[in-house]
Structure formats: structure tokens, C-alpha cells
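Justification of computing resources. Each target in the renewal requires a structure prediction run like the one illustrated here; the chain below, 379 residues long, is used simply to show the kind of job we budget for.
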Amino acid sequence: MKTFRFSLKKYRNYLIVAAVLLLFLAIDLFGGLRRTDANLLSQIAISVILALSLNLVVGFLGELSLGHAGFMCVGAYIGGYAAVAMHGAIGSSVLVLLLSALIGGVAAALAGFVIGVPTLRLKGDYLAIVTLAFGEIVRTLFRNQAVFGGALGLDTSSIRFGTKLYIPALLLVLFTLFVVQNLMSSKHGRAIKAIRDSEIAARASGIAVTKYKLTVFVIAAFFAGVAGVVYAHHTSPVDYGYFSFNTSIDILVMVVLGGMGNLTGTMISAAALTFIDVKLTTALSLDAAVRNLLYALILILLVVWNNAPALRHAREKYSLRTLFEKLSKKFFPKKAEEDSESAAWDKIPTKIPMDAILSADLQPDRAFTPDPPEKEEKP
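Resulting C-alpha cells:
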């Protein structure tokens, strides 16, 4: 009989985000949370949502997208405009944020659908070029619309959430994790991974390749739009210049550095790179050229460290995955029935020596004795 066993490994991503949220809530409760730290945490949450959503396309689907900032731009402008319009009618800031996040996410998803239908049949560099062009076109369109503030940007000062924005932002991170992790754990996730491994084999197996590609693209665009709405509540005015090609590359670097298809690594990478970028900008007050140079050098060191064979054993030994596996075994041990069942399977031989296979003396309960060597005949 199959028994349910709780595994910390399965829920480690939720536990990490929940632990961070509870820690900062406790600090904020006792008045120790500074405004700069709260703003930094909100920026980290935005980066994590963007990186997790792009990981769906790049890491799990295996397609290169360079226009993720374009979907964020759609969500920021549409969702931000809707939030400003709803601000006077709805008194609750949280409700305004959630409704505008839904509106901005749906708008970005529609943009992803419109772009995805004609372009997802393309592969490799061609798809990357099309998504790159989309990102540049979108931000130029919003720049030239007077209703969205034109070149000055969309004024969202009336909906600035303040220092408490990190709370709904981290809750949206949990929601993003829930959707992405459950999608990839389902049969649809296995189909998506099959497309990544071999599109030809996936088509031959009867998988609707185009449908799954479009679905993943739309879901990723939706969460990029949600991140854009959170950004609109964090920063005013919403400047079209932020959603440039450089932002798309920054998100892609977070995914690649954290590990394509690795949700935990993507979260840690997004948090670390955002922390470094913000500290280089604010704490050190460096010139833009010097900051970009230092940021590039830090990226190179992180990539080298991440791929160094000498450090691979140490990373595996002290990684969060190993820690959660040890805690899971300690606090949620296997049942006796599971142990006996697994032990019975372990006793089944999986490898038989080649000598025993080739020998005619192979019989039950009898040791193998090789045939004596043949004597050479003398001439």
C-alpha cells in the first residue's frame, strides 16, 4: 500500500520564500527594517518573478527569448494605468495592486499570444531576433503615446505602495512558484521537457508541440506582466528606457547563472545579482561606467565559480538541496514498510558477470568454475 511521505525537498522553494518573508516581517514589526532594505527586497521579488517566468521558456522549453522586458513593459504601462484609474474608486491599496496585476498580466499574456502564434514556429536565433525586435517596438509605442505620459513616462506616484510593497511582492513570488513548479511536475511539464530534448521525437510521439510552446510563452509573458505591475507600484514615473534590451539580457543572465531548469538556483541568482547591482548603484555611488565594469567582473567571477570542477563537490555537499534532503530524512523518516520494500528491491541483482553469462555451468546455488585451459598439441 502506497503511503504519503512529506518531503522537505519538494517544498524547499516555498519554504525559502516564506522564511524570508517571515524574517523581514519580524524585523519590520520591531521597527528595525530600513526603507532602503524594504525597497531592495521589493526589487529582488520583481527580479525573481521575471527570472522564474523566463526559465519556463529558456530552461524548460529550450527556446531563446530576448524580449522578456517587452512583456514587462506591457504589464507596467497597462497595469499601472489601470491602477491609477482605480485608485480613487477603490480604497484598498492591496486590492488595487492585485486587480492591476491581473489586468497587466492578462495584457502581457495577450501580447505573448499575438507574438507567439506567428513566431514560435521559428527556432534558435530567428526566434531570439523576433522577440528582441518585439521588445524594442513595444517600448517605443508606449513612449509615443501621450495617454501614458509620453517621453516623461507614466506617473504612478499616486499608487506608490511604500515600504510594505515587499509583502504582496513576495506573495506573488510564491504564486509564481506554485504555478511554475506544479506545471513542470505534471504530465504537461514532461511534454514540455520532451520538446526541449528533441522536438522531432516529441512530434513523433503525438505531442502538440506548437500548442505547448504557445502555452509556455503565454504563461511566461503573464508573469512578466505581473512583475511589471509591481515595478509600476515601486517606481514612479514608469520610464520606457528601463525596458530596454539590457534588461532582457540581465534577466537571461539570472536564468543561465542559476541553472536553466533549476528553480532554486534561479531564485538565488536573481536575488544575488539584484543585490549586487543595487549596492553598486546606491551604497558605493559609483560612476555608471565604473559600476558596469565592476558588475561585469563580478559576473565573470560568479560564472567561473559556478562551473569550477574543484568547487563542484563543495557546492553539492553544502547546497540547499542537500540540506533539505538531510532535514527531510531526519524529521520525516521512511516507514518500515517502505524500508523493507526498498531493501527487497535492492537484493535483486542488476548486473551479472560476463563469465557467468557465457558459461554453461551457470546453475542455481552453484558457484561458477571456469573451464580448464585447453592443452596445446605438440607437433
